[in-house]
Amino acid sequence: MMIEVLKSKIHNVKVTQTELRYVGSITIDEDLMDAANLIEGEKVLVVNNNNGERLETYVIRGERGSGMVCLNGAAARKAQYGDILIVISFAHMDFEEAKTFKPFIIFPDSNNHLTR
Question: Within a 10 A sphere around the Cβ of 106, how many other Cβ atoms?
Fold first, then answer.
């Protein structure tokens, strides 16, 4: 049996930009992507803690070390600069494998940088 489980999570990251006139997606600092084990083009669920909005989109690689988290295209209507998001991805895996799988969960600081 295959089940869908949490694979990656960026918890409480701040929106730094929105770009309405852009082909949709979410741009994320490459440092955050690496730490959360996300790849460019990966489907993610984005949850806005400020207004309760939830949307699915895909990841675009942002400049490494920039702290960028930018909602693009129609997704830009779902958040404002400074809103706090949770970015989540899921993976399908065998039930037994899922029992021992450890997701990649990161907690960036208030400037969207990794704490050491």
Answer: 21
